[in-house]
Design brief:
This protein is mainly alpha-helical. It is about 55% helix and about 5% strand. It starts with a helix and ends in an 8-residue tail after the last strand. The mean pLDDT is about 80. The structure holds zinc ion.
Length: about 110
């Protein structure tokens, strides 16, 4: 029993806080699956972050035309405007260091 283990191992002079920490650690090591739970949650977050990153990359980089410089991207914006597509802007890509066009002003920061 973890609460007894805390009493047996602990000194009576220990502070209440130290005893709480000791008991908390005893619970964690008692085989109740807390460690597994934390590890799984950590892994799940990593996977979710990686998927989110991949989705962002596909949306803001890989699915788009890439221009090697700002001036070429801006030339493309001008060409689009001639064909009736206005409101485009250019941004430097944090994935490929090239330039892309977007019609969504919030996309770059997303
Ligand atoms: Zn890119």
């Amino acid at each position: 029993m973890w609460w007894r283990a805390g009493c047996v191992m602990g000194s009576r002079k220990r502070s209440a806080k130290a005893r709480q920490i000791s008991e908390f650690k005893a619970v964690l090591s008692a085989g109740d699956g807390f460690d597994d739970l934390f590890a799984r949650e950590e892994k799940r977050r990593e996977v979710a972050a990686a998927e989110h990153e991949a989705a962002l990359r596909a949306k803001s980089c890989e699915s788009k035309n890439r221009y090697p410089s700002r001036s070429e991207a801006e030339a493309a914006v001008a060409a689009c405007a001639e064909y009736g597509t206005t409101g485009l802007r250019v941004y430097k890509c944090r994935y490929c260091n090239g330039w892309h066009l977007t019609s969504h002003p919030w996309e770059e920061s997303e």
